[in-house]
Amino acid sequence: MTIDHPAQPARTEPAGRSAQPALSLIGAAKTFGPVVALADGTIQIEAGEIHALVGENGAGKSTLVKILAGLYTPDAGDFTLAGKPVAFRGVADSKAAGISVIYQEPTLFPDLTVAENIFIGRQPKNGLGLISTGAMRKAARALFDRLGVQIDPDRVAEGLSIADQQIIEIAKAISLDAKVLIMDEPTAALSGVEVDRLFQVARSLRDAGAGIMFISHRFEEVFALCDRITVMRDGRYIATHVTNETSVDAIVRQMVGRDIAALFPKQDAEIGDAVLTVDGLSRAGVFSDISFTVRSGEIVALAGLVGAGRTEVARAVFGIDPYDTGRVTLDGKPVKAGDPQAAIDAGMGFVPEDRRKQGLVMDLSVARNATLTLRHRLARFGIISGRREREAAEEWSARLQVKTGSQEYAVSTLSGGNQQKVVLAKWLATEPTFLIVDEPTRGIDVGTKSEVHRLISELAGRGIAILMISSELPEVLGMADRVLVMHEGRITAELTREEATPETVMHAATGSLEGAR
Amino acid sequence: MTDTTTKPGGGGPVTVATERTTNPIASIVRLRELPVTVALVVLVLVTYLANPLFLSAQGVKDLLLNATIMIILAVGQALVIITRNVDLSVGSILGLVAFATGTMFATMPQLPIIAVFAIAMLLGAVLGAINGALVTIAKVPALVITLGTLYIYRGLNNAWAGGTQYFADDRPDAFGNLSVDTVLGFPVITLIAILVVVVVAVYMAGARSGRDLYAIGSDPDAAKLFGIPVGRRVFLAFLANGLLAGLAGVLYASRFNSVGATTGSGMELDVVAAAVVGGVAIFGGSGSVAGAAIGAILLTTITSALTALRVDKFWQQAIVGILILAAIIIDRVASLRTAKKLRMSEARDV
């Protein structure tokens, strides 16, 4: 494939763009010892545009962001802001130059108030030179009014939803008078309504003249929101497109450098008897009257907005959290409430939403992680045999095509997609009859995404009953045999594969249509 | 507190923001310093009812004198703990500085008292700065670093002092009188401690760099991402803690009859206990120096109270332990309740 990759800064500029973009990074390179994290990082962001940066995981997007944020110093490359060359010595320099970064993992201080989080380091002062909490509260409120949101400036940041945390980060950026706002996968943990609110805010900032860089794995969002798209692959700049002059297929081809299989290859599986039956499950304030079944070979998707109670239901079914009333039965036998070990023994597996915090022990080796659930079976007289551990891990890693140099490497060295495979391996090794997967492809690049989908589909093919929680509609519609939609802690719709469309699911998820069928 | 602000119209959207009335009682109940304050008041009241002599003029003076040194140490320790670090070497710093103070008076009697204070605090600051430099440069947990310097500073003290001890006779009367003379009923050294509490408390609440310490303890990685100079702030927190431990060392030499090789041994754990009981979260990010100071008063008062109540002195340590656990449990229960409340409100909001 030929790629549009001029070596000179003077590349094909879309019409109507100024000669001096708000931010321009050309040919930036960054190596860590022998590892080349970025070979040719190039991006130009104009004032008043939303510019998408897309690429698979490992394409160098995060390294590029960290250079812009002042966290990394590039080894080579030209970096200019509004035509003036800059060299950042640290984050403070980048901030002072008008660049604000909103990271995927929120970076608020949980113990400080919302207002203080916005103004930390530059709190307004009173006549005595001391911080004025009153002025700070007022300023925070003014920012929230401008953004059209209601967040109490006096509450601590701990416990805020990710969507609210992002709004606070944006408020912070506005108060810093940011000229360039970088959003690194801001929608990964958001759902419909929250994404809309974020987009509204982004558009109004763009119209006010800010340059926005938007990183996302979700193409529908990229195409709905962004004016231009820059593609990266393997640490290199590939091309920049004007959004209305390109297509998803073209972008995906450039990202992966090859044609990839269909995104959501759910294979037909023979659907058998009910494996899991949940009957009238309730927990005060969290969810109520949840009843459903999952049959062998079936993938049931649990859709809904973030906060609708999907993960909470899954956690209760698996015994991590308690429930007040209701019953869970697996293969006809009741499962003890509030006891994950009992759930595992009964044949359940749980692939959690947050790989890093809940799915893996990041500092342990691949082998150790993959066999964590097997400790009892691998042990003889209570002592785990290292050889048997390795053998079991190798078998499962091979079956799942985990790409790692050695079973002994720490899991933290793997890419997100491969980490997810290790989590899957961990549970598959227990040979479950019922598996819960919570946001299985969150933050995973396109190529690996379809591999994870293929794996889940294969598992269903082997007769495992699967409950999949997902906020990505295409994933839900592509993978699920049946879709349960939750809204405010209740199941508001149960849709067959044929009935499930973006519209029916979204209506049920937002509660805007009674019994969407 | 309740007012309605209307932004002037024009280009922007006209919005009306209603200030949420914050219930003053509710915000007092949420105060992290509340449990320790209540415990202190109850302890003093119960002891007073059982033995009215406990709150006589002399009794109060003794309580304050006993608490003074611990208050200063607890304030310094709170600074460090709030940044998600800890300094276990303060007992050794205090010992070394107290012995240095004794040596100065014994060998250089012409030295003005104010100069002794300055030199002693400088010594403490240097010892604290060594801790700070090791923690921020070597990036080894402060627990390990300061455990090491605890022994090193104590070893230096041992080597220097040997069997030497300095007694009250070796120092000028004016210096000893700091612990005897009172102003408005407060011993002078207690007034110094109160001044320390006020200055540091105002700094922590009202200065940007003070708020940075909370941010660092709340999430060190986020603090780095935000551009807060984490290393410099943590270094200065250790330095300030060393300086305060140095001050405590001088005052120790004024207050107590003798200083020698073992002065201050084991105090570090009392200090950490005082801070934790006073509501300073051991993982940083929240708490206040005022709370730590009240914690110090509570712990030192228990000893006197138990004596006044004729409780066997050996129970004292067990009671301190129970207080530490109680402080942590109260904290945990409170945060679980908040989490539950948030969960409920979020479930409704979506």
Automatic annotation (TrEMBL), chain A:
- Pfam families cross-referenced by the UniProt entry: ABC_tran (PF00005)
Q: Where on the tree of life does the source sit, at the highest rank?
A: Bacteria
Q: Does the UniProt entry include the keyword Cell membrane?
A: yes
The organism is: Plantibacter cousiniae
| Cited SMART domains | AAA
- List each copy of the ABC transporter domain by range: 23-259, 269-513
Kindly indicate whether the keyword Membrane belongs to this entry: yes
Q: Which UniProt keywords apply?
A: ATP-binding, Cell membrane, Membrane, Nucleotide-binding, Repeat, Sugar transport, Translocase, Transport
Mind telling me which CDD domains this protein's record contains? ABC_Carb_Monos_I, ABC_Carb_Monos_II
Molecular function (GO) terms listed? Answer: ATP binding
The name under which this protein is listed is: Monosaccharide ABC transporter ATP-binding protein, CUT2 family
> What high-level taxonomic lineage is stated for the organism?
Bacteria, Bacillati, Actinomycetota, Actinomycetes, Micrococcales
UniProtKB/TrEMBL annotation, chain B:
The answer to whether the entry has keyword NADP is: no
Q: Which CDD domains match?
A: TM_PBP1_transp_AraH_like (cd06579)
Keyword list (alphabetical) reads: Cell inner membrane, Cell membrane, Membrane, Transmembrane, Transmembrane helix, Transport
The membrane topology term of the UniProt record is: Multi-pass membrane protein
Localisation = Cell membrane
User: Principal place where this protein is found?
Assistant: membrane
Its domain of life reads Bacteria
Description of how the protein assembles with itself and partners: The complex is composed of two ATP-binding proteins (LsrA), two transmembrane proteins (LsrC and LsrD) and a solute-binding protein (LsrB).
Full protein name? Autoinducer 2 import system permease protein LsrC
Q: Which organism is it from?
A: Plantibacter cousiniae (nom. nud.)
